[in-house]
Amino acid sequence: MSELNNIAKQMVAPGKGILAADESTPTIGKRFAKIEVENNEDNRRGYRELLFTAPNMGEYISGVIMYDETIRQRASDGHTFVTVLEKQNVLSGIKVDEGTESLVDSPEEVVTKGLENLPARLPEYVNMGAKFCKWRGVIKIGENLPTANCVQMNAERLAKYAKLCQENNLVPIVEPEVLMDGGHTIEKCYEVTKNVLDVTFVELKKAGVELGGIILKPNMVISGSTCETQASAKEIAELTVKCLKETVPAEVSGIAFLSGGQSEELAAETLNEINKIAVDCPWQLSFSYGRALQASTLKAWAGKSENIVTAQETFLMQAKKTSLARDGRL
Which keywords does UniProt give here (predicted)? Predict the structure, then answer.
């Protein structure tokens, strides 16, 4: 078993999943605005410390994806966040994409950027203690969207990123996200997701990426957020598992779903339904959630130091619930 495969297996170990704490500074600013907390470095550091020092969080969380600012920060005891996580037996990861830019011939669509300086950045993250990376491609469903060019370009960039990561002994999380924004049906989401995954794996193989040393982070097959008919958790599970079986090679170590804007309740319920019917799948079916692990925690914290313990308890309760769902035991 290669070192990459070994790390990938740890990331999707039974009962565990990945905490996505890689919100960019503007994104976490939006979260903070809802709880009336100022978006400054000290508050961002304090909030991440609250999460990373939650007692025994390693029982439910295998790894944490951090933002560039976060992986460089230290806890109030002076230890780096990487060290803090190591003590919890949690792997450190880093978001390495640099956001998106509009496609020239289809300005409604985007392609992810950050490849140019990636070879120079990766060794630095390795030296900081990172074990895995994340890169997100974004696909929109709309009238005549996505275009084949958008799907292709995002797949090519995901593949190049994944190859560069593996050359630096980092496990790449490959995240081709089909957004749930829009009025499309679950059937349309299935059709687009299947195509996106097919094209992505063609490019990963072409680039010589070791599939046993990646984690796939896909969207679930789900109704558009403004679709009049919302599919049930059971329907989401059935079409998601069907789609994955048709597209994902068996040698992929694991699949860690993104929550994609689902509420904490729905993201746990859908994950639970998926794992209840996925008994014969060749991969671990785990989670890599951001908001679906943090929404209640942020509210409980509200930027006040006297709320830290309560907020940590809230976080651990949600992490435990999602951990149970990840094994179909909710």
Answer: Glycolysis, Lyase
Tell the residue number behind the tokens 């679930």, with chain if given: 220
Partner residues linked to 201 by β-bridges: none
DSSP 80: B
DSSP notation for 273-323: HHHHH-TT-SSEEEEEESHHHHHHHHHHHTT-GGGHHHHHHHHHHHHHHHH
The candidate with the shortest Cα–Cα distance to 60, out of 330, 328, 329, 326, is: 326
What percentage of the chain's residues is helix, strand, coil (to nearest 5)?
50, 20, 35
The structure's pTM equals 0.97
Q: Residue 1's CB: how many other CB atoms inside 10 A?
A: 9
Domain that holds residue 99: 3-326
CA dihedral sign, ordered 193, 199, 203, 204: positive
Strand ranges in 144-296 using DSSP code E only, listed in sequence order: 171-178, 215-216, 254-257, 284-289
- Compute the distance between CA of residue 323 and CA of residue 318 in angstroms, rounded to an integer: 8
**Could you give the number of structural domains in the chain?**
1
CATH of residue 21: 3.20.20.70
Write out pLDDT tens, residues 55-97.
999 999 999 999 999 999 999 999 999 999 999 999 999 999 9
Q: Which residues pair with 103 in a beta bridge?
A: 106
Tens-digit pLDDT profile for residues 117-134: 999 999 999 999 999 999
Q: Which residue has the tokens 């942020």?
A: 298
